[in-house]
């Protein structure tokens, strides 16, 4: 996407080839900074502390982490070790498992002296594939929004509610949930986005709002609990979220709070769609609530908040009563029965086993 007129991906090989460069998402929305990954430890750290986040970008970063490891030591032992190390960084996003499995299977067949080159080629191909997938998701989702626009008065926007950041910053480019939004905006279809703040890390307020603002998309940041109220008053036409893992039966796992939006949408007859690239589908799982591991992150993310003071300094303050215990589950699961449809690179699917299997038969065979 464009940032102040310059085209960026979220991850790329530096001009001198000495590092893998990323946009440091822990600095948003106060600064736009590039960080360099030179080792597999750098890649693992970037995933763990959320310098990069979003299932597709985590997978791409892991692939580059393997490539950096192969540059340092292309042995079989090094390959197995880096895959195991990176696998432990974030437990919920299935793209991490997918990318590492793909890298290990491909590279183990390559002679050690050629593994570095092969690993970087593979990582780049994963990035290119992600962009192509997201563009296709955007086109299919655009059709849904365009149909809603036909029911509006001339110039009246389609009001879209999203949760967390399933945008350009969560992928290599375009985003998943935001791809249809950007394409509609660029194509002259009026849209307005309700942006959930997404506590506790505020990915909506910090990241999605930043993205939309730089692209010129009209948007309004709201507190997480306002979505149901807006739906009750007819102020939301469609909900589009992303997902970090989708089961073979259509359950979706996304940032904590997504399930509540789906319940509110169901109660108010608001269509609830989930935009997802096929690598987020985990064909080995059927019951998302029981089977998907939910990452429990540090309670400090809840009990503290970072912001910019009136004097312009960035400070972190405590916001929870002293002595209170804090829990921080990072994701929840929305059952398929609450999902109107899945926006994939192969079209809009029903959230059920048959529809998903028919759309991606080759993925189903690989998981068997």
TrEMBL record:
Catalytic activity, EC: 5.3.1.23
Gene3D superfamilies membership: translation initiation factor eif-2b, domain 1, Translation initiation factor eif-2b, domain 2
Listed GO MF terms: isomerase activity
Coiled-coil stretches: none
Enzymatic class: isomerase
Annotated keywords: Amino-acid biosynthesis, Isomerase, Methionine biosynthesis
Catalytic activity: 5-(methylsulfanyl)-alpha-D-ribose 1-phosphate = 5-(methylsulfanyl)-D-ribulose 1-phosphate
InterPro entries with a match to the protein in the record: IF-2B-related, IF-M1Pi, IF_2B-like_C, Initiation_fac_2B_a/b/d, M1Pi_N, NagB/RpiA_transferase-like
Pathway: Amino-acid biosynthesis; L-methionine biosynthesis via salvage pathway; L-methionine from S-methyl-5-thio-alpha-D-ribose 1-phosphate: step 1/6
Catalytic site positions: 244
Family statement drawn from the similarity comment of this UniProt entry: Belongs to the EIF-2B alpha/beta/delta subunits family. MtnA subfamily.
Database matches in PANTHER family: METHYLTHIORIBOSE-1-PHOSPHATE ISOMERASE (PTHR43475:SF1)
UniProt name for this protein: Methylthioribose-1-phosphate isomerase
Lineage: Bacteria, Pseudomonadati, Pseudomonadota, Alphaproteobacteria, Hyphomicrobiales
